[in-house]
Amino acid sequence: MSSHALWFATRGFGVVSLLLLTAIVVLGVAGVTRWRSTRWPRFVVAGLHRNLTLLALVFIALHVITTVADGYAPISFLNAVLPFTSPYRPVWLGLGAVAFDLLLALTVTSLLRARIGYSRWRALHWFAYASWPIALVHGLGTGTDARVTWMQVITVTCVGCVVSAILWRVASNRATPALRTMSTVASLAIPLVIGGWYLAGPGRHGWAARAGTPQSLLARKTTTPSSSQAATASGPALPTRAFTGTFSGRVKESSQDANGYVVVNISGRTSGGNAGVLWIRLQGEPITGGGVSMTASGASYGPAAFPNAYVGKIVGLQGTRILLSLNGQTNKLSLVVDLQLDSTTGTATGTVHGNPTSLQ
Predict the structure, then answer these.
(1) What are phi and psi of 251, to 5 degrees?
(2) Can you give the pTM of this predicted structure?
(3) Closest residue by Cα to residue 266 from 314, 325, 328
(4) DSSP 8-state code for residue 352
(5) Do 180 and 275 lie in a common domain?
(6) pLDDT, tens digit, for every residue of 70-102?
C-alpha cells in the first residue's frame, strides 16, 4: 500500500473509531437506564453494545497499524500502547494510547466478568467510559483534519449524541439526586472545556509546533515559497502562483461491479513547476471504444510531506484532459492535467498546469 493510501486509511479508521465509541457510550447509557422497546429488547441493546466494542477495537488496531506503517511521523507500536512515550506530539498521541488501553481493559474484564465479580467489573466499566472524551481530545490534538468543516461537524454531532444520552439518563427516575447533579455538571462542563481548549489550541494556526511535532517535520511544513530554500529534500511549499510541470505515474482500472461501474485510479508525482503527489479517482460506466462516463470523482494534490494539502473533485473531463477543482486551508487550486496513457504498461505521463486562487 502506498504512503498516500496509508495517509487516507489512518484518518478514515480514526474517524470511524470515534463514531463507534460514540455509539458504544450511547448504547451503554441506554443499557443502564434499562431502555427497551418491542423492536429493541434489552438483550439486543446489550449484544449490539458488546459487538460494537469489539468492532471499535478492530478499527482502532487498523488505525494504529496504518499510522505506524505510513512512517511519516516517528510512531511505533510501543507508543500506541504505552502512553506519553512518542516523540511525535507526546501528550495528544499519549491520550490515544490511554483510550485504547481503557477500551482493551473493558473488553478483557467483560470476558472475565464471572471471575472478577460484578461489582469490580462495573467499577472498571465506568472508568472505560472515559475512553470517549480522551479519544475525542486525541483526535483533535493529533489529527490533521481538526480545522476542516466536515470533521468539525462530526465532532459536534458526536458530542451532541453523548450529552443528549447522559441528560436522558439524568431525567430518568432511576438516577439518584447526587448522580443527577454530577452527571448534569459533567455532561455540560466537559464539552465546554474541550471546546475552549480546541478554540485556543487545534483551532488556531501554529498548533503543530505547540502540540509537540518534531522540528524535522515542522521544517517541511513551514517552508515558505518566498524563501530561496523553498524546495527542500521533502518537497516544496504550497503553490502561491500559476505553474506548469510534468506528471509521471500509474493508472489502474477495476473490473465492473454489480452496477456495471468501473473505478479508475491515477496516482503519481509531479515535477518541474511545483513538485508534489497527485491522485485522481473517477467512477463511471465504460464507454464502447474506450473511456468512462463519469458518475463520481475525487482528487488530491500536495507536496510529499502533505499529499492531501488540496482535496476536491473532477469538474471537467475531455478525453485525457482532466480539470480538477481543489480546496486547501489557505487557497484554492485549479489543475489542468493532460495525460498520455499506456494501457499495456499501466503508466501515465503528461503535463500539469496549476493556478492557485485566494479563498476570499
Answers:
(1) -125, 135
(2) 0.61
(3) 314
(4) E
(5) no
(6) 776 788 899 989 999 988 889 999 999 999 998
